[in-house]
Every structure is written in C-alpha cells, then in structure tokens.
Design a protein that fits this description.
Strand content: 25-35%
Strand order of the largest sheet: 3-2-1-5
Oligomer: single chain
Shape: rod-shaped
C-alpha cells in the first residue's frame, strides 16, 4: 500500500514537471534554423541592390556638387557684372575651380586669372566627362547668361550610372537630366 501511494506521488510529480516544461515557451532548433535561412536569403537579394543604390546616391551627390559649383560661379558673375566668372574642369585630376576671366579670353589662364574657389572634387567613384565644353571651361557673364553652352556628365565608374548637366548658352540655366 505504501508503495502504491509512493508510486502515485512520483507519477503526480512527473506529470507536474512535464506540464511545466510544456508551458514554458521557447524556440526550437528547427525554428531557429528556418529564421536563419530566411535571413540569409534576404541578405543575398539585398546586398547587390545596396551597391546600386549607393552608386545612385554618389552619382546624384556628384551631379549636385557640379551644379552647385556652376551656380556659385554664375552668382559671382551676377554680383559683379564687369568681371566674368567661370568654372574650369580639370579632367586629369577630376577637380573644378571657380575663377575670374579677367582678360575675357574664354579659357582659364593659371597665371593670369584670379581664382575665386579652387579644388572642388567629386566622390572617388564618380568621374565627370565633358562632352561639349570648349576649353574645359564654362564662363558666365554679368547678366547670368553663359558665354558658351556646356554638357557635362557625371559617371559612376563601378556601376556605369550616368547623369547629365546642361548649361544653356542664352539663359545660363543649369539643368540636370
């Protein structure tokens, strides 16, 4: 009889322990592996798109930098209508500088022309390509118009993304396409 009573007590303790273990919530190893596999698939899909997205951001920033440099030169020319102001694009160094075209010869003379702001450079992964810029210079007159029209491309070297900046000769309007 004592043995039967003792067996019932042990059986009740065992059932209590099993019930407590079932009530504890947790993650099984199989569930954890499924989550890891899903995360890996998402990472494989997202990483290549991340590179293209960063490329678009770098290209957009470079285009905005070129446009801002051109707009600053245009604003400087308008501020003093007697002196024309231009942007020189150094294609070998991939740098730009704003200068005063004091002798009005429509190009940058490193010894003769005064520099207003120099060494604007783009992101390392972006290059500018001058498709129609005479003497590598865009010069603005005192009324804001450009002496010469220009087309400049900013190109991402890794993903081949290209944006174009156009300076309209008659109005001096700077457009991004």
């Amino acid at each position: 009889m004592a043995d039967l009573f003792r067996m019932r007590q042990i059986n009740a303790l065992y059932r209590n322990a099993v019930d407590k273990r079932r009530s504890i919530s947790g993650v099984t190893l199989a569930e954890l592996m499924i989550i890891i596999v899903i995360a890996a698939i998402l990472a494989v899909v997202a990483v290549p798109n991340l590179g293209r997205m960063l490329s678009r951001i770098h290209t957009r920033n470079s285009v905005n930098e070129i446009k801002s440099t051109l707009a600053l030169a245009q604003a400087r020319a308008i501020a003093n209508p007697r002196v024309h102001c231009g942007v020189y694009f150094n294609t070998s160094d991939q740098k730009m500088l704003i200068f005063f075209d004091d002798n009005e010869n429509n190009h940058y003379d490193s010894g003769a022309d005064r520099i207003y702001k120099d060494n604007y450079s783009l992101d390392k992964s972006t290059k500018f390509i001058l498709t129609s810029v005479p003497n590598d210079v865009v010069i603005f007159r005192g009324d804001g118009s450009a002496k010469n029209g220009a087309t400049i491309q900013a190109k991402d070297t890794k993903y081949n993304q290209t944006k174009t900046i156009t300076v309209v000769k008659q109005s001096g309007k700077i457009q991004i396409q």
